């Protein structure tokens, strides 16, 4: 994650500005004050971070409970959904720290600065990778149904999930190495601390997020869904259409929430290397960074909502779950009435290649 916008809390110069250190102080450039951005962030960010944290925690926890209690991880899609929920939970785990940071300063030390920044980016990369895998899973189930009988197994789902986590962890290593607690002007920040070639590393970080977090998934998902649409046009199947509709919605929502931040991040990298200059432009980008990044946070809350409104089975399982937890359910049990639910067993489903049973 790029936390350059946190640096604006104590930045008084335009990024990329070439100062003329002469003795004529009357001609010296005026500092680019950004106190307004700091005030905006201290009010705006904690409220939204708290909303994202609470809704993301509850929603994704329910997904995990449903998958273990009712679905029992009987398919590759279940494995990917479970890992996506875990990714989102990792994502929201960091938000209480950033919420406090936005109001005050970083008080958690250098080690936690590294860990929390790293956890955020691991959650980001793994989340988009699992959405991409879910699209590939739909592609195999519908376009290559015969091959999918052998490929779409729980074992392969666990194996590919492990690979995704390794790639996400490796891609996030720079955050673990460079991020640190820095004290400047009696104010402690959590930001990247580069020993040399800071501009190069900032540019690399920006390009890495745009490449792995946007461009590559866009290409893969675009290919998968173009092939899926072509296949469905030749062979209509209502259950397949519902499954594809849900996963496609997850993909579209992700890009709606993340694309603005990636664009702003790319523009910020141009400021860092001096291609874009000007105090007003820099200040506007700081505001945009806060707004778009906070908007991107909400994606981890949206996936459970999509499952609920678009997945008939998921709605049924949530209903059963709340009934089993409710006071009414407990009273019914005492009166001799028992609420029953059915877990999904391998014998109660079609073959995995049909692509319909996997949708929640």
TrEMBL record:
It is found in: Cell membrane. SMART domains: 7TM_GPCR_Srsx. Pfam families: 7tm_1. It is a multi-pass membrane protein. Keywords: Cell membrane, G-protein coupled receptor, Membrane, Receptor, Transducer, Transmembrane, Transmembrane helix. It comes from the Eukaryota. Its main location: membrane. GO terms for cellular component: external side of plasma membrane. Residues 59-307 form the G-protein coupled receptors family 1 profile domain. The keyword Mitochondrion does not apply. GO terms for molecular function: C-C chemokine binding; C-C chemokine receptor activity. One of its GO terms (biological process) is positive regulation of cytosolic calcium ion concentration. The chain crosses the membrane at residues 47-68, 80-103, 115-133, 154-173, 211-232, 244-267, 287-310. Belongs to the G-protein coupled receptor 1 family. This is C-C chemokine receptor type 4. The gene is LOC102379743.
């Amino acid at each position: 994650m790029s936390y350059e916008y946190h640096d604006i809390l104590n930045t008084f110069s335009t990024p990329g500005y070439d100062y003329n250190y002469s003795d004529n102080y009357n001609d010296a450039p005026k500092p680019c004050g950004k106190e307004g951005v700091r005030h905006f962030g201290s009010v705006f960010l904690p409220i939204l971070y708290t909303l994202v944290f609470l809704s993301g925690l509850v929603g994704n926890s329910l997904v995990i409970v449903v998958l273990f209690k009712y679905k029992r991880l009987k398919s590759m899609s279940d494995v990917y959904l479970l890992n996506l929920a875990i990714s989102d939970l990792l994502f929201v785990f960091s938000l209480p720290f950033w919420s406090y940071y936005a109001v005050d300063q970083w008080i958690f030390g250098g080690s936690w600065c590294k860990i929390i920044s790293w956890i955020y980016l691991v959650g980001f990369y793994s989340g988009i990778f699992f959405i991409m895998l879910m699209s590939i899973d739909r592609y195999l189930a519908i376009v290559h149904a015969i091959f999918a009988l052998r490929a779409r197994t729980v074992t392969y789902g666990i194996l590919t999930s492990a690979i995704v986590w390794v790639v996400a962890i490796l891609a996030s290593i720079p955050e673990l190495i460079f991020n640190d607690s820095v004290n400047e002007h009696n104010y402690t920040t959590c930001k990247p601390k580069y020993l040399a070639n800071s501009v190069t590393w900032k540019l690399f970080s920006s390009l890495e997020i745009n490449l792995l977090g946007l461009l590559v998934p866009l290409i893969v998902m675009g290919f998968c869904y173009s092939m899926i649409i072509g296949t469905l046009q030749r062979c209509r199947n209502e259950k397949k259409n519902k499954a594809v509709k849900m996963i496609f919605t997850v993909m579209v929502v992700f890009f709606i929430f993340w694309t603005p931040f990636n664009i702003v991040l790319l523009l910020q990298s141009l400021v860092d290397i001096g291609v874009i200059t000007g105090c007003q432009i820099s200040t506007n980008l700081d505001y945009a960074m806060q707004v778009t990044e906070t908007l991107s946070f909400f994606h981890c809350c949206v996936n459970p909502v999509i499952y609920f409104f678009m997945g008939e089975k998921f709605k049924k399982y949530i209903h059963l779950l709340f009934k089993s937890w409710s006071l009414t359910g407990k009273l019914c049990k005492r009166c001799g009435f028992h609420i029953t639910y059915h877990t999904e067993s391998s014998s109660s489903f079609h073959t995995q290649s049909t692509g319909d049973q996997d949708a929640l």
